[in-house]
Design goal:
Elements (H helix, E strand, L loop, with lengths): L3 E9 L4 H14 L3 E7 L8 E9 L13 E4 L2 H7 L8 E5 L15 E5 L1 H8 L5 H13 L4 H18 L2 H20 L1
Parallel strand pairs: 1-4, 4-5, 5-6
Antiparallel strand pairs: 1-3, 2-3
């Protein structure tokens, strides 16, 4: 498990960036770790770039702000451009490989740049609505910031009311998270 991790997750409004950040933060908190989540919404709830800043540590977190992240997740072309400022030579930059036309915008100074086909996998293998949970799995796979069981408990806490109405959703979300871990580990 990582000692301390700084995450910047960004996407278009409605892609579930804030939900992923909340679930990861909840999982870390329930694991007894220090966890801090700061949302930054675009101009519109749907349609603007939404950024979530997350810090998880075994020690007290001194400041809610950070200049560079350990991992940046960008889910749209605008998110790729917006999050490059949080990248340095130690950052792992993860983006959806299905985003067209971002090759020239990807950070060249990152430690690693990983393209994963999250949207494609969601549409072709699972369901488009679990795209963000695939991304959550990618975060977990790339950082080890929370373990899979704790993440599943946090998803259960956040979405349990939906799972009661449709139990198949639980398995779908858990498969999506596991698939995200597989996708990023394959790239690492």
């Amino acid at each position: 498990m990582a000692k301390g991790v700084k995450l910047a997750l960004a996407g278009e409004g409605g892609q579930g960036v804030q939900s992923v950040a909340m679930i990861i933060t909840e999982a870390a908190y329930e694991d007894g770790r220090e966890a801090l989540y700061i949302p930054n919404f675009g101009v519109e709830q749907r349609g603007g770039v939404s950024v979530a800043y997350v810090q998880i540590s075994d020690e007290p977190i001194g400041s809610p702000k950070f200049k560079t992240a350990d991992i940046v997740i960008a889910l749209s072309d605008r998110a790729v451009r917006r999050t490059k400022r949080y990248v340095d030579k130690n950052t792992t930059f993860v983006y959806d490989s299905g985003i067209e036309g971002v090759e020239d915008d990807l950070p060249t100074h990152a430690a690693k740049v990983l393209g994963i086909p999250a949207i494609k996998v969601a549409k072709e293998e699972l369901h488009p609505r679990v795209f963000n949970i695939i991304i959550m799995g990618a975060v977990i796979g790339a950082t080890g910031v929370v373990d899979l069981d704790r993440a599943k408990q946090a998803i259960e806490k956040k979405l349990g009311y939906k799972f009661e109405k449709d139990p198949k959703l639980r398995d779908l979300n858990f498969k999506a998270m596991e698939r995200g871990i597989e996708l990023v580990k394959k790239e690492l």
